[in-house]
Amino acid sequence: MKNKYLKLSYISLTLITSLLLVSCAKSVTVQGGGEQPKDTGDILVECEDLGDEYIDSFIFLGESTTYHMKSRGVLRDGTQTTQVWGPKNGTVNLDTDISSLKIVYPETGEELSVGEAVSRKKPKRMLLTFGLNGAVTKVKKGEKYFKTCYLTLINTIRSACPETAIIIQSCFPIGENMDMSAYTVDVKTLNGYIDTVNIWAKELAYEQGLGYLNTQEVLRDDKGFLKTEYQVGDGYHLSVEGYEAILKYIRTHTTGE
Length: 257
Description:
By secondary structure, this protein is α/β, with parallel strands linked by helices.
């Protein structure tokens, strides 16, 4: 009789363990829809290094911290890369005018709307990175405003090419040495605002079934500021080493697609 109870207990434990494993597996199946984790930090989970070919499949769109990937020459074609999109001035402000944003299409030099560029290029993947430009204003205007602006851009891309996988990347932290004379807050407070918009961006990724890439975790020092070796000295624009750390993070975090 004792052996019978032990056998039943073992079977029960095995069933419970199996259910837990299935549940965990579901929580990382995100790109293109599916069940999403509700209480974990990252959608994109650590994986083996996918190599430069994976990076080659991306188009990068964001603020000047994204556009400078081109001048730093960190992608396959160096400073001649066509993977980085941006307007003539090289930076984008995520606001209510985002739907009218025009980028310089790298292959031809034409000015195209984001929708036109996506429709023509049909990127396999797009990585979007926003949050620092106007961070103080965005936080004051609130979560709904930020998500609405971001969703406008996401839906523009979706309409132009439904097959493009969209990934939202966290806004990068700023350094303790950043010149704050143009701001009404100090460095620590602005980093806190960046944390807030990153929470909103992550929630939006959950809500829309998109990938979320928490790159900022590899850029921060032990006090939460942008590491000195990952910046060019102004507290927010990234060095080659900073971009290399980001690219490695991208290559080693995926949805398991």
